[in-house]
């Protein structure tokens, strides 16, 4: 909201410098973003006296002038104004000046004659609308004086950043009310008085020309209208254009400019219709219903929805209520009869309409926050009088006022003692009354009430809220009013008397942060993605039709089509990250993300949230270096990351099982596994298959895993240090075991079964796979698995016979369980 100090002074006598006014408004909750001098461009415009005028030798309409600007020498300036003459005192733009319209004054030659500046008209300086000649100044002005100083021009523009709960300050009067309240005692707010002329017997009545019917009173509580005839549409007078330009608006014509001027002044939007385009002399305020499209003033066609509120004549819509008028009733140069609308619409309806239609106007901005329901008629009168003044029009007798829903004033019971307790202040009741009354509230105070002591907790005040404060409805709102007017900076900082005992973070937060540290420690970078993704992500992942991850929650107002549903898995986000990095020629990537997934439940219920960890590795196994050979990462690299992570958080003994292709269709067959611990599924891991890579436009192999952190939490051990074993004093003995197995036998199962023998054989220290082979000369469906078993005693050196017996026993039991064969 922009406002000029000169405009504010029309309504309040409070006298502050621009800096003081900006500070006080900011401290009262109306943050001032900027203060600018609207006449700063006149700094390099000086008063000048024309000393000599000669005809340009090569141009009939140009004059060569010698101009005194208070310096040591006269300037040579070529001028084309018809009124230039010797002795004339005029504004002169010096070299380097920047005039409105981004006109930069430079030293130049005009038809061969040097020009060292520019003699300006009032229009060129935005000080008048006349282009007929250069601006003639008072002959008493001294050459060389800055023009703004000579004319006494001083005005500043304040740009106020308002919060949505202060629609009353979307007007000059609203901000002037705040400024007046700063004074001590508060200054009086001088509001414009709009007295309509008495009925003229020679002038028709508006009721003979227009009838208004509100069909949807739930969306329009009041509709007022007035009418002018013999209107002469044309440019607005300079004072009106100047006011609009100063606050960032563009003048259009005298009728439309008055609607904008009054809106900025009062905060009440208005609209003017060409009456001759209103069919049937009738206005209906109703929902769009069967109407489907509408062309607005900006020439664009908009699709209508049945519940949008429209302003219609006897045949068709002529405006989207509270948003924008229609092209079919626009004020044009030939308009002679004007119907003026001032109404009060439902804020929720206007906001919904503006959002759906994609139209954001100054009018909708105000209506969707709430306008004063009691000011509708007074604002209409103000606009009618101004329109009649600037267009030489005649006002028809009478005004239309359809008011189906009356405004009920809000009354609040306020306990001063409770207010002080809420704020931690000791403000007297009389001061509270004074502060509230300064901004328009009515308080049932008396002289004795004002003198009551603040400690009287039985005292209560009844506060009547002014109709323009649509944001105030409860005692807490009044507390805010008193606090901001009294001064937030005057409220002392107080600390609680009871010592506060710090509470440590929850175990879930501890685990999440530890996992982040572990993953970054293993060289992974954390990705932060939106919790939304594309509705096609499930198709790209090749998920079955009955997969629970297809239960997506749809976003009502998505940022884009690519972010239209809540994600049910983290993997598509990481695939998108990989694609963007690959497009920037970053082919080696190690990413992880900790975040929530959302599974839709029954309609009207919140989605089921689950915290997950997902990671992706693609490209090189190690960084390119002279001391290592280049090699691509594979399934066992990402599996090693998962195993290290489990060990670090105290989850030991996780088993890896072959993943079901139907449940995990996005993994390459034979290169995927599910992870289990104590009978619980923790997640999955694998290589992404070619179809999914193609769907996400990925050009190289990718290995991923996804873990359920909520499930891991029940097994998480924060203190994973445990106890330490002493260093062994005696050597170990190793024995190898090579088995011929069916390819369907999981190597991890064999490994786990041998590990289980530790319960029976304490000498068994370790076992690991060192070779796996498939192919000739082995039969089809067979594989060779070689394991190394390590034995050690902590008490003595082992003998060959003892190890041989134990190793033989273990080998026989494994061979029997898996129907294995020994190589020949």
UniProtKB/TrEMBL annotation:
- Reported cofactor(s): Mg(2+)
Q: Where in the cell is it found?
A: Cytoplasm
Q: Return the similarity comment.
A: Belongs to the phenylalanyl-tRNA synthetase beta subunit family. Type 1 subfamily.
Per its record, how is this protein called by name?
Phenylalanine--tRNA ligase beta subunit
Predominant location: cytoplasm
Binding note for cofactor: Binds 2 magnesium ions per tetramer.
Q: Which GO terms describe its biological process?
A: phenylalanyl-tRNA aminoacylation
| Domain (B5): residue spans on this chain | 407-493
Q: What class of enzyme is it?
A: ligase
Residue limits of the FDX-ACB domain? 728-823
Residues at which Mg(2+) binds: 471, 477, 480-481
Catalytic reaction list: tRNA(Phe) + L-phenylalanine + ATP = L-phenylalanyl-tRNA(Phe) + AMP + diphosphate + H(+)
Q: Self-association or partners: how does it assemble?
A: Tetramer of two alpha and two beta subunits.
Q: Which SUPFAM superfamilies match?
A: Anticodon-binding domain of PheRS, Class II aaRS and biotin synthetases, Nucleic acid-binding proteins, PheT/TilS domain, Putative DNA-binding domain
Q: TRNA-binding domain location, by residue?
A: 39-148
This protein's record includes keyword Zinc-finger: no
- EC number(s) per entry: 6.1.1.20
Keyword annotations for this protein, in alphabetical order, are:
Aminoacyl-tRNA synthetase, ATP-binding, Cytoplasm, Ligase, Magnesium, Metal-binding, Nucleotide-binding, Protein biosynthesis, RNA-binding, tRNA-binding
Any one GO MF term held by the record is:
ATP binding
Pfam family, any one: tRNA_synthFbeta
Q: Does the keyword Calcium apply?
A: no
């Amino acid at each position: 909201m922009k406002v000029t100090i000169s405009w504010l002074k029309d309504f309040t006598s409070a006298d502050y410098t621009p800096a003081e006014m900006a500070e006080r408004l900011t401290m009262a909750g109306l943050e001032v973003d900027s203060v600018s001098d609207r006449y700063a461009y006149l700094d390099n415009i000086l008063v000048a006296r024309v000393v000599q005028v000669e005809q340009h030798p090569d141009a009939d309409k140009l004059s060569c002038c010698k101009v005194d600007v208070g310096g040591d020498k006269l300037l040579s300036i070529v001028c084309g104004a018809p009124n230039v003459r010797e002795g004339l005192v005029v504004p002169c733009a010096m070299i380097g000046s920047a005039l409105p319209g981004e006109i930069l004054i430079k030293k130049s030659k005009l038809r061969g004659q040097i020009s060292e500046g520019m003699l300006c008209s009032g229009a060129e300086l935005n000080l008048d609308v006349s282009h007929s000649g250069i601006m003639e100044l008072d002959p008493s002005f001294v050459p060389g004086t800055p023009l703004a100083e000579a004319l006494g021009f001083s005005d500043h523009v304040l740009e106020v950043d308002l919060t949505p709960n202060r629609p009353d300050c979307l007007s000059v009067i609203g901000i002037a009310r705040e400024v007046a309240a700063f004074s001590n005692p508060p200054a009086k707010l001088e509001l414009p008085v709009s007295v309509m002329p008495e009925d003229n017997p020679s002038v028709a009545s508006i009721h003979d020309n227009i009838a208004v019917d509100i069909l949807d009173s739930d969306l329009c509580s009041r509709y007022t209208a007035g009418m002018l005839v013999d209107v002469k549409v044309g440019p607005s007078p300079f004072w009106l254009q100047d006011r609009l330009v100063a606050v960032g608006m563009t003048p259009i014509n005298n009728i439309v400019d008055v609607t904008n001027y009054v809106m900025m002044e009062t905060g009440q939007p208005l609209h003017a219709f060409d009456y001759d385009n209103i069919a049937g002399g009738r206005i209906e305020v109703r929902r769009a219903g069967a109407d489907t499209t509408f062309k607005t003033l900006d020439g664009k066609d908009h699709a209508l929805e049945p519940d949008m509120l429209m302003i219609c004549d006897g045949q068709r819509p002529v405006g989207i209520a509270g948003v924008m008028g229609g092209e079919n009733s626009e004020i044009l140069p030939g308009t002679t009869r004007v119907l003026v609308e001032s109404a009060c619409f439902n804020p929720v309806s206007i906001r919904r309409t503006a959002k759906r239609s994609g139209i954001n106007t100054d009018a909708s901005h105000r209506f969707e926050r709430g306008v004063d329901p009691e000011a509708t008629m007074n604002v209409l009168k103000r606009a009618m009088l101004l329109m009649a003044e600037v267009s030489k029009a005649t006002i028809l007798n009478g005004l239309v006022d359809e008011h189906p829903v009356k405004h009920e004033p809000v009354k609040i019971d306020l306990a001063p003692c409770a207010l002080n307790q809420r704020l931690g202040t000791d403000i007297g009741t009389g001061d509270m009354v004074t502060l509230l009354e300064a901004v328009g509230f009515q308080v049932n105070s008396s002289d004795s009430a004002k003198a009551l002591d603040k400690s009287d907790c039985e005292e209560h005040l009844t506060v009547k809220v002014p109709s323009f404060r649509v944001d105030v409805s409860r005692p807490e709102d009044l507390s805010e009013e008193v606090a901001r007017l009294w001064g937030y900076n005057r409220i002392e900082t107080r600390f609680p008397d009871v010592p506060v005992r710090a509470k440590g973070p929850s175990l879930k937060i501890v685990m999440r942060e530890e996992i982040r540290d572990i993953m970054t420690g293993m060289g992974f970078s954390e990705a932060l993605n939106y919790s939304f993704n594309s509705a096609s992500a499930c198709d790209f992942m090749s998920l079955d039709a009955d997969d629970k991850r297809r239960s997506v929650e749809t976003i009502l107002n998505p940022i884009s089509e690519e972010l239209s549903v809540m994600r049910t898995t983290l993997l598509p986000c990481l695939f998108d990250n990989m694609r963007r990095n690959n497009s920037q020629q970053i082919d080696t990537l190690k990413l992880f993300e900790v975040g929530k997934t959302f599974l839709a439940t029954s309609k009207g219920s919140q989605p089921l949230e689950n915290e997950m960890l997902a990671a992706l590795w693609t490209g090189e196994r190690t960084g390119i270096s002279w001391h290592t050979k280049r090699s691509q990462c594979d399934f066992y690299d990402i599996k090693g990351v998962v195993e290290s992570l489990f060990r670090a958080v105290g989850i030991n003994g996780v088993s890896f099982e072959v993943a079901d292709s139907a449940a995990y269709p996005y993994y390459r067959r034979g290169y995927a596994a599910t992870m289990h611990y104590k009978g619980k599924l923790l997640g999955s891991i694998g290589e992404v298959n070619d179809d999914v890579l193609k769907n996400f436009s990925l050009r190289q192999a990718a290995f991923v895993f996804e873990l359920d952190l909520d499930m891991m939490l029940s097994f998480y051990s924060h203190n994973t240090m445990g106890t330490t074993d002493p260093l062994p004093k005696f050597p170990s003995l190793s024995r190898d075991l090579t088995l011929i197995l069916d390819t369907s036998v999981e190597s991890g199962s064999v490994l786990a079964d041998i590990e289980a023998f530790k319960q029976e054989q304490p000498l068994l220290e370790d076992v690991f796979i060192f070779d796996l082979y498939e192919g000739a000369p082995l039969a089809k469906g067979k594989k060779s698995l070689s394991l190394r078993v390590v034995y050690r005693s902590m008490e003595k050196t082992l003998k060959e016979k003892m190890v041989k017996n134990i190793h033989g026993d273990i080998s026989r039991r494994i061979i029997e369980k898996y129907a294995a064969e020994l190589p020949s």
